[in-house]
Design goal:
The protein has 304 residues and is an alpha/beta fold. The chain has 2 domains: 3-171 and 213-240 and 275-282, Rossmann fold, CATH 3.40.50.720; 174-211 and 243-272 and 287-301, UDP-galactose 4-epimerase, domain 1. 38% of the residues lie in helices and 18% in strands. It is built from 10 helices and 13 strands. The strands form 4 sheets. It has a 7-stranded parallel sheet, sandwiched between helices. A two-stranded parallel sheet has the order 7-10. α1 links the parallel β1 (3-7) and β2 (27-32). It is globular and about 55 Å long. 48% of the residues are buried.
């Protein structure tokens, strides 16, 4: 049994990860500032919860006591918010990550798994899979900050011999999703509208393609990244289902009438992960299709 620290462990992905780690028999400590709000259903019995902020190095150092591995999920994630508040989000996403890396290195932690973002790729040409060798082109402070944090993770592996690996997530959705949160905004919005009996609002023609990835698969990728002997040298690895689906298809799966609204400028038309490196290094394979994942969510939301 290991003692793991999950920063941001009271968030959407963090809650799912904490729940899985506990089910596997591990001890879990969570460091969270509850910035996204307090959701009682996200507090997992058996986990230790510390209220603190990754921007505060003392909070982070205290949380590292006796920790064997760190899953670093804490972030200020919204792209529009980062555009409006670049300095604040920089403190969360870069300074906060640096605080976590330094404290983990100094505490003798065995490995850190960093939650990165596919937003670093920017808006590339239509129908092109995104691989880790694709040159990043961040289009928001958030994307730039996540890219900088990846490089910090790489440098800590190269300069200090501190094992790290960064996982670039693609459009994560699933249980404990906050319909107003930063992940899977389209899915959360559609579920909320469907539950309320309202038409689903689709931007423009709905021909926006995303690589929707169920959170259970993302959690498994994290656990493999923590334990695999093949990684730990600062690698960056895509974590996506590997098949882009359109917003129109998503709306059809959720069901109900739809209505078109004006397009949002700057939204990429196409985002699809090349996940071959994850399969090669982590022996990771996504298992939950969009059809199955949306079916699960509809049952959880009581949508028939």
């Amino acid at each position: 049994m290991s003692l793991y620290l999950v920063t941001g462990g009271a968030g959407f992905i963090g809650t799912n990860l904490v729940k899985k780690l506990l089910a596997d028999g591990h001890a879990v400590r969570v460091l969270d500032n509850w910035r996204a709000g307090r959701f009682p259903e996200r507090v997992q019995p058996g986990a230790e919860y510390l209220t603190g902020d990754i921007r505060n190095s003392d909070d982070v150092r205290q949380a590292m006591s006796s920790i064997e591995g760190v899953f670093h999920l804490a972030a200020a994630p919204r792209v529009p918010y980062s555009i409006e508040h670049p300095q604040e989000t920089n403190e969360h996403n870069i300074t906060g990550t640096l605080n976590v890396l330094v404290a983990a290195r100094d505490a003798g932690v065995k490995r850190l798994v960093y939650s990165a973002s596919s937003s670093v790729y920017g808006n590339l040409e239509m129908k092109k899979k995104l691989s880790e060798s694709t040159p990043p082109h961040p289009l928001s402070p958030y994307a730039l900050q996540k890219l900088a944090a990846e490089h910090y993770c790489r440098l800590f592996a190269e300069l200090y011999g501190f094992p790290t690996v960064s996982l670039r997530y693609f459009n994560v959705y699933g249980s404990y999703l906050d319909p107003n949160g930063a992940y899977a905004l389209v899915i959360g919005k559609f579920l909320r509208q469907r539950k309320a009996g309202e038409p689903l609002t689709i931007c423009g023609d709905g021909q926006y393609w995303r690589d929707f990835t169920e959170v259970e698969d993302v959690v498994q990728a994290n656990i493999l990244a923590m334990t695999s002997p093949a990684v730990g040298k600062g690698e960056v690895i895509n974590i996506g289902y590997g098949q882009a689906r359109s917003v129109q298809e998503l709306a059809a799966l959720i069901g109900g009438p739809t209505v078109a609204i004006p397009e949002r400028p700057g939204d990429p038309r196409f985002s699809e992960a090349d996940n071959s490196l994850a399969k090669q290094l982590l022996n990771w394979q996504p298992t939950i299709s969009l059809e199955e994942g949306i079916g699960r969510l509809k049952r959880e939301w009581g949508i028939t």
